[in-house]
């Protein structure tokens, strides 16, 4: 498995502000992802964080709203910019391990409430 | 378009009995399936997986069955324990393309005493 930590674990933010969420993995991984789980819904992939290049965003998500950094193979950040109450969600970092079998592991999540 | 569906949003099972969680998918290109368990305020935890070349995979109390012709998989937990109470997500992936999981909407399992 993989040990993944996220900071902060939760936050309450005001509308119009931005929050940066950090994800740290205990070992180098090629693929890191950022997901969102809105209340009562499934996990939705926001983007794939690519090391050394721009993140790959899924349909409905843009870099201006969710800028992502991936400076090395063990760390990534997701910023939620210009927040609105609709951004209230759990944000999850995830990594892919392909040994012994391809499996994706998740961090504990960051619970965000935007007022 | 919901490619992975978990049609039962919730399930209640008595302790010691079998829990059966179902998942259906529409994309025939999916060739690897995973189940995750999620407790409140925690991230999803990987539980068990199955490749499309198999029809059954067992790990302790957890068994996953895959019926490719029906595009259906199920997770069996036996015997169910109160600690199994959580939300269970089914996920699928086409390993031949970019590794991107598609999740179902989850089933909340409640194991009662």
Can you tell me about this structure?
The complex is a heterodimer of chains A (115) and B (113). By secondary structure, chain A is mostly beta strands. The model of chain A has no long low-confidence stretch (mean pLDDT 92). The termini of chain A are far apart. Chain A has no helices and 11 strands. In chain A, strand 4 and strand 5 (43-49) form a beta hairpin. Chain B is mainly β. Helices cover 0% and strands 53% of the residues of chain B. Chain B has no helices and 11 strands. Chain B has strands at 4-5, 10-14, 19-25, 32-38, 45-51, 56-59, 62-67, 72-77, 86-93, 102-103, 107-112. In chain B, a hairpin with a 2-residue loop joins strand 6 (56-59) and strand 7. Chain B starts with a strand and ends with a strand. The mean pLDDT of chain B is 93. Chain A binds chain B through residues 1, 4, 6, 31, 33, 41-45, 48, 92, 96, 101-109, 111, and chain B through 32, 34, 36, 41-46, 49, 89, 91, 93, 95, 98-101, 103-106.
Structure described in brief:
Chain A has about 120 residues and is an all-beta fold. In chain A, about 0% of the residues lie in helices and about 50% in strands.
Spans of chain B of at least 5 consecutive residues whose pLDDT stays below 50 are none
Order of helices and strands of chain A: EEEEEEEEEEE
Largest interface: A-B, 23 and 22 residues
- Beta fraction of chain A: over 45%
Radius of gyration of chain B: 13 Å
Strands, helices and their partners?
The complex is a heterodimer of chains A (115) and B (113).
Chain A: E1 4-7, E2 10-13, E3 19-25, E4 31-37, E5 43-49, E6 56-57, E7 68-72, E8 75-80, E9 89-97, E10 103-106, E11 110-114
Parallel strand pairs in A: 2-11
Antiparallel strand pairs in A: 1-3, 3-8, 4-5, 4-9, 5-6, 7-8, 9-10, 9-11
Chain B: E1 4-5, E2 10-14, E3 19-25, E4 32-38, E5 45-51, E6 56-59, E7 62-67, E8 72-77, E9 86-93, E10 102-103, E11 107-112
Parallel strand pairs in B: 2-11
Antiparallel strand pairs in B: 1-3, 3-8, 4-5, 4-9, 6-7, 7-8, 9-10, 9-11
């Amino acid at each position: 498995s993989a040990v993944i930590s996220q900071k902060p674990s939760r936050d309450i933010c005001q509308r119009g502000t931005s929050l940066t969420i950090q994800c740290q993995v205990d070992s180098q991984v090629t693929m890191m992802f950022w997901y969102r789980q809105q209340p009562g819904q499934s996990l939705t992939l926001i983007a794939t964080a690519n090391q050394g290049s721009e993140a790959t965003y899924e349909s409905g998500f843009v870099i201006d709203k969710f800028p992502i950094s991936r400076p090395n193979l063990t760390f990534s950040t997701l910023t939620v910019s210009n927040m609105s109450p609709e951004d209230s969600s759990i944000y999850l970092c995830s990594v892919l391990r392909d040994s012994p079998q391809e499996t994706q592991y998740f961090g504990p999540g960051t619970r965000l409430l935007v007022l | 378009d919901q490619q992975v569906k978990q049609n039962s949003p919730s399930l209640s099972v008595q302790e010691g009995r079998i829990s059966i969680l179902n998942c259906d998918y529409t994309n025939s290109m999916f060739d690897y399936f995973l189940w995750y368990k999620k407790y409140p305020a925690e991230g999803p935890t990987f539980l068990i997986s199955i490749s499309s070349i198999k029809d059954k995979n067992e790990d302790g109390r957890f068994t996953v069955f895959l019926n490719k012709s029906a595009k259906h998989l199920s997770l069996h937990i036996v015997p169910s324990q109160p600690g199994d109470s959580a939300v269970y997500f089914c996920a699928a992936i086409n390993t031949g393309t970019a590794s991107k999981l598609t999740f179902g909407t989850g089933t909340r399992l409640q194991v009662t005493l």
